[in-house]
Design brief:
Blueprint lengths: L1 E2 L6 H9 L20 E3 L6 E2 L5 E3 L4 E3 L3 H8 L2 E2 L4 E8 L2 E11 L14 E5 L3 E3 L5 H23 E5 L2 E3 L8 H6 L13 H5 L2 E3 L2 E12 L2 E8 L13 E6 L4 H23 L1 E2 L11 H12 L1 H4 L3 H16 L7 H9 L17
Antiparallel strand pairs: 1-4, 2-5, 3-4, 6-17, 7-8, 8-9, 8-10, 11-12, 11-13, 13-14, 14-15, 15-16
Helix pairs in contact: 3-6
Length: 357
């Protein structure tokens, strides 16, 4: 969605009111340019009036042509924690996002507080930005990149003391091929230790944890409440945090899996409440779900959009270009096998891939 940021004259406002679906070129004089060069309305794009009387062109009637410069311009409007920065870079023709993290070494033993630890500069995985990616999806890609980068940190902050050594069993660096080839080494067995025993060996953010309560709600629902003892954690949302989570049984292994899920969920909630675009916390729980639904209907319902016949042609052409361009190159045979496995010769939207299927 793009708001038309202009102050119309009385005549222009009358044009809005009389024909909201007029070609946008008739709405702008030489002084009234579209606000972003990297997104432009299609011909005969509709204007939609919202409940607060703002006039907008919904994002699905815009063409996008992102460059490294335009991606950086969008990132400039994003606010988040000072220790995590979303960057844009380009290699050849490919533009990508990458999260820079300023963090202590999670694997270096240090008895001092996190704040006094020497910090390392680290970089997360690359997130490809397609040239025609809607700006809203670009913002959400940055949001997702931050969530994954922080989850990586959370998993490394979880430590388990075993046989006099310390491991990080939930980190993302374990050798999966070795585990797959030797599953008997990592599958849960019936000779597990008790939860009380395992809790004494768990460390999170260089501090112990405390089990506050355990309640068996049903045979398959166990509620645990755990208090974290870290008071100066590098991820501040965990400072003296109390977590409650459900598990399917009362085994130590289920407890550990439930605990790490609760930790990751806490990090994700923090990102949702702190991530801002142009000062707006889109993913906050303070955003009303029902109101989002109303806004979506206002911008997508045929009765409110009211495309003219030429507008429909251009919109259909835009949708075709976007959807047909998403097919991964060189994978036609694999996709054919994928469809055949489901007993499908041609999918309903086969017309999108005339040179592919």
């Amino acid at each position: 969605m793009v708001t038309v940021n202009i102050l119309p004259s009385a005549g222009l406002f009358g044009l809005f009111m009389s024909d909201k679906n007029s070609h946008l070129n008739t709405l702008f004089s030489n002084e009234q340019k579209w606000q972003h060069s990297y997104e432009q309305p299609i011909s005969y794009a509709p204007l939609v009036q919202l409940a607060n009387n703002s006039w907008v062109v919904p994002q699905h009637f815009l063409r996008y042509k992102h460059t490294l410069n335009s991606v950086n311009k969008v990132l400039e409007s994003i606010e988040f924690s000072a220790h995590f920065r979303v960057l844009a870079a380009q290699k050849g023709e490919e533009i990508y996002l990458q999260v820079a993290v300023l963090s202590p070494d999670n694997y270096q033993k240090n008895d001092s507080h996190s704040e006094s630890k020497a910090k390392k500069l680290l970089f997360g995985r690359r997130w490809i930005v397609e040239e025609n990616l809607p700006t809203s999806e670009l913002i959400q890609t940055a949001f997702l990149a931050l969530k994954i980068a922080r989850e990586h940190e959370v998993r490394e902050l979880f430590q388990l003391i075993q046989d006099g050594s310390i491991s990080t069993p939930f980190n993302n660096h374990h050798d999966l091929p070795v585990m797959a080839q030797n599953p008997e080494l990592v599958i849960a067995n019936s000779n597990e230790v008790s939860i009380n025993n395992i809790i004494k060996r768990v460390v999170f953010a260089d501090a112990a944890i405390e089990l506050k309560s355990h309640q068996a709600i049903t045979a398959e629902q166990h509620l645990f409440t755990v208090e974290l003892q870290c008071s100066n954690c590098q991820l501040s949302e965990f400072n003296n945090k109390t977590l409650a989570f459900l598990t399917s049984d009362a085994s130590a292994n289920s407890f550990l899996h439930g605990f790490i899920s609760a930790l990751v969920n806490t990090s994700n909630d923090y990102v949702s409440e702190q991530f801002k675009y142009q000062g707006f916390t889109r993913f906050s729980k303070n955003v009303a779900v029902a109101q989002i639904g109303k806004l979506s209907i206002a911008m997508r319902s045929p009765s409110t959009v009211g495309l003219c016949s030429m507008g429909k042609q251009h919109a259909n052409q835009l949708n075709f270009e976007i959807d047909s361009g998403r097919a991964p190159q060189g994978c036609g045979q694999a996709i054919g096998g994928f469809l055949a496995a489901h007993g499908i010769e041609q999918p309903e939207n086969a017309h999108l891939y005339p040179d592919y299927l």
